[in-house]
Sequence to fold (115 residues):
Amino acid sequence: MTCKGSCHCGNIAFEVQGEITGALACNCSLCQRKGSLLWFVPFTELKLLTPESAISTYTFNKHVIKHHFCPICGIHPYGQGMDAKGNAMAAINIRCIEDIDLGSIPVQHYDGRSA
Fold:
C-alpha cells in the first residue's frame, strides 16, 4: 500500500510503502512537545517528492535520530535513524499522512524520557 503525506504547507511531500498496523507515542522531551504518532518503516520505503534542500533537521541528546521538519510551517513529517541491527529506518509521523483514520490505529506508548 502506498501512503501519501506532507507537512502542513506542502513544502515537504512524500510517499511511503507499507501497511500501518500501529504507531508509537514517545514521551521524550521532543516527541511529547510535537505530539507525533510514529510508524517505523525501512528508510528505503520512504520516497521524498520534494528536494532534500527543502527540509530542516534537528538532533539532540545522543544525536542518533535526525528529526526532519519544514522550515516554513514547522511540521515534523518524519525522522531518520537506525534500528538495533544497523538498518536505516524512517519514523513517519502518521498525523501527516493523507486520509488516515487516526482513531483506528493502535498506539503503543514508549518511555523515551527514561531511555
About this structure: The first helix runs from residue 31 to 34. Helices lie at 31-34.
